[in-house]
Amino acid sequence: MTDMTEGAPTRGPDTEKTLPESSARKGTRRGGGDPANRGRTTIADGVVEKIAALAARDVVGVHAMGSGASRTFGAVRDRVPGSKSVTRGIKAEVGEVQTALDLEIVVDYGVPIADVARDVRENVIAAVERMTGLEVVEVNIAVSDVKLPDEEDEEPESRLQ
Fold first, then answer.
1. Who contacts 42 (Cβ-Cβ below 8 Å, separation ≥6)?
2. What's the pTM?
3. Domain hosting residue 53, numbered range
4. 136 falls within a domain
5. What is the pLDDT of residues 1-19, one digit of tens each?
C-alpha cells in the first residue's frame, strides 16, 4: 500500500498477502485451469434423437412418430422386452457444436398441420438446445399420415395369449 501524504511516497504496512495461485483458487483442482476445459464432451446421435422424440410427442396433434411401415415394425419390436424404440421417426446428425434433425410424424385428423409442425419444431429446438447445449441448425418435418378418428392404431395382433 502506498501513502502519498506529505509529498513523499512512503510504504505502509503490508496488509495484503499474495497466496500462491494454486491455493488462491480453491474452486479448481490440481493441474490448474478451469475444470470445464479439461476434456471433451461428445453427445451421441441417439441421445439427441431421444430428446427430440420426447419433445415432439409432447405436442398436441402429434399422434405418432414414423411412417406406417416403421410403426408396424416398431409395434412388433416393442413386444420384445428391452427393445422399445423411442426414436422411431427421428434421425439426427450431430457435430461438435451443431445438430440437424429429420422427423417423420403422424398427425391427428382435424388439427392444422402447419401449426402442429411449427409447435413440434419449436419444442424440439428448445429441448435439444437446453439439454445438450448444441445449436439446432434445422428441424425438417415430414407428415407421413393423418390418424382418422375411426381408425384403429396399426398394431399387429399378438399371437400370444
1. none
2. 0.67
3. 45-147
4. yes
5. 444 445 554 444 544 444 4
Looking at the DSSP bridge assignments, the partners of residue 116 are none
The enclosing domain of 89 has a CATH number of 3.30.70.1350
DSSP assignment of 85-142 equals -TTTTEEEEE-SSEEEEEEEEEEETTS-HHHHHHHHHHHHHHHHHHHH--EEEEEEEE
Reported as type and span, the H/E element at residue 45 is helix 45-57
Q: What are phi and psi of 12, to 5 degrees?
A: -85, 180
* Residue 94 belongs to some domain of the structure: yes
Q: If we measure between CA atoms, which residue out of 116, 102, 105 comes closest to residue 66?
A: 105
Nearest to 86 by CA among 108, 69, 70: 70
Asked if residue 112 belongs to a domain, the reply is yes
Query: Residue 33 domain-assigned?
Result: no
Residue whose C-alpha is closest to residue 143's, from 111, 106, 115, 90: 106
